[in-house]
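Hey,
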Amino acid sequence: MAKKNKTIYMCTECGNEYPAWQGQCSYCGSWSTIIEQKIQPLPEADTRRRVGITEKPVKLGSVGTDTYQRIDSGIGELNRVLGGGIVLGSLILISGEPGIGKSTIIVEAANNIARTQGTVLYVSGEESEQQVKLRADRVCGKVAEDLFIYPETCIDNILSVCNEMGPKFLIIDSIQTMYSNEVDSVAGSVTQIRACSNILMKYAKQHNVPVFIVAHVNKSGDLAGPKTIEHMVDTVLNFTGERDKDLRILRSFKNRFGTTDEIGAFRMTSTGMQEVADLSGSLIENSDAAEQGSVIGAVHEGSRPVFFEIQALVAQANVGFARRTAIGIDHNRLNMLLAVLERQAGLNLLNYDVYVNVVGGMKPDSTATDLAVALAIFSSFRERCAPSRMVAVGEIGLTGNLRSVPNADKIISEAQRLGYDAIILPKKNAAAHKSSDKPGSIRVLGADHIREAIKLFAGK
């Protein structure tokens, strides 16, 4: 038997409801503000509806905003990227290339949460219980009593187990292996991934349980599967790093509960992921030695400045066209900087091969690295070294002018802490900084144009 439409009477002034119509609102005292509304009931089994929806519109000003409660993952760098910890009821997606360390860091976080919060369920769709146990023994040492492993790919069975156990934390590794009986397609298809993600989102919101979803990436490094997943989840994390290097960077591309500028640094060891507190120190090994083609650059990532070494090699091209090779920076950005150096600084690089590398496997995507790249190319081409331990930060425009960068004061303070003698900045940033005459204070050098920056770098 079909349900009939539900009729309610609501005051448009204060929003209170009445079972029957009346002329005056007994709450706010207003007259002629009671209106009739008919609400069409929907089947309770309708999986298309959102969780916790209201039957009628409400005033936005009357909606309460509860403070989101977070739990400690036991990993400081992971907490930093998430904005202070894992939010209860959040759906977190983590992606990265195979073997980069996604499962390693999640197993460690799951073990920490099981020790402090209670039951944690690790659903493995790719590995057996023995394989996960071997990793947990290597990473965690002693495995927590409340950490459970469940090798299953049917999302319906997983929800049944979750309803019985009531876990405090749920991990799905990986979403591409999951399938729902309600969808007639193979696991890993676009339809299955979308359906399973929607089911997990509803479970997380309904039971206030944080859910971690591991996802694969395609050849280009983008998330495999429909783009809809990234819109559905609350947080999107990405693990990057070079296979031949042990440094790993965890970056947030989307975070509804925090900033997306924060990064976490880890080092892959034989016992799992080791947090890197001093990222700048780990990226710069030979900061005291002045070398041709080597310049220290810096960017501000989230709440901390990160310093790294940029090396450039300019060599005579023997045959054919000159080569331009960039590792760690955008190739098109390098070509633009070379054109600016030729036109605005008088460097004839047409018949020279140019190789640029960011040492340590870091891949800064900020334009604040432009000046360090340009000075490294100049240093190699002219065979000149900086007269002192120097840092270069700034964005270069097509006219050769230096544009200001954000958070320059924090970069200056960190450069002074690391013991650098001078830092070259856009003149606007240098003018805004209050210089100190104290012994050991860093010299802040401002430049308007790339030509001025080259003169400061060469000590002229």
